[in-house]
Amino acid sequence: MTGVLIGFAIIAVVIGAGYLIARIDLLGAEGQRVLTRLAFFVLLPCLLFATVATADLRRVFSSVLPVAAITAVICIGIVVVAGLLWRRPLPESMVGGLGAGYVNANNIGLPVSAYILGDATSSVPVILLQVIVIAPIALAVLDISTSGCFTLGRILLQPVKNPLILGSALGLVVNLAGIRLPAPVLEPFTLVGAAAVPVVLLSFGISLRGRRPLAAGSDRRLVILASAVKVLLMPALAWVVGAFVLHLHGHALFVVVVLAALPAAQNVFNYAQRYGRGAAVARDVVLITTALSLPAMFVIAALLAPR
């Protein structure tokens, strides 16, 4: 469990630094907005391009991918439908759904993969699924529902207009074409992309000043549902799909369940901030699931880790 503890400790320290920045008003009133836009339009696209362009795509077809896809669709769908039935707007419902099914496969998933699962690339299929499939669809819904324009042309133009989708798509093209980018070409993307995670975490920390989870007016019902689905239902679904549909056992089953127990990704908060909808929901779900996912992983390890 050392890797999990280290990953959580690093995240907590950087979020705490962001909170301190807000407390001393270091960046002013527009600081968080500037960081969010910098991450969305520059840092994250570079990170996604460099990650996807150099990934081993053969791992996408491992047993992790179908389990991750099925559980994500079910969990996101449950919360989105519930939000709409509760008469919540579509953007807020979509943000809640992402909190329930879009996992932190990068800055928590990678150390968990390395130190708990024994393979640092175990979470790569989840990263690619989220970047290439889930994020484009969710961002298209957010973009269209916040702009009020529901045209087929606007939907088809999403990959061209969204920098996150562009970064991941270009990386996929380079990878599939077998192009090995020279180090001097790839290094600027790697260098700039390396700033994405800390900047997003700092922005998240800044947003915490004066906030507490489940505060009045924070859409508690949606937050509680999304958090419960993420922490409890998603790992349970992964176990059911892995054991009874794909007939996984031993280490393979342990891998898919642990990956499903990862907390909601900070990117959900970044997306909510970018579109100006559901930020409180995203912030609370990320905070709650990050706090609860570690105990969940301990339980999973006790029950399923190969002896």
TrEMBL record:
Subcellular location: Cell membrane
Gene3D superfamilies, sorted: 1.20.1530.20
Key words, A-Z: Cell membrane, Membrane, Transmembrane, Transmembrane helix, Transport
Membrane topology per record: Multi-pass membrane protein
Domain of life: Bacteria
Membrane-crossing residue ranges in chain numbering: 6-22, 34-55, 67-86, 98-117, 123-142, 163-183, 189-210, 222-246, 252-272, 284-305
Stored Pfam families: Mem_trans (PF03547)
Family: Belongs to the auxin efflux carrier (TC 2.A.69) family.
Protein name: Membrane protein
Organism: Pseudolysinimonas kribbensis
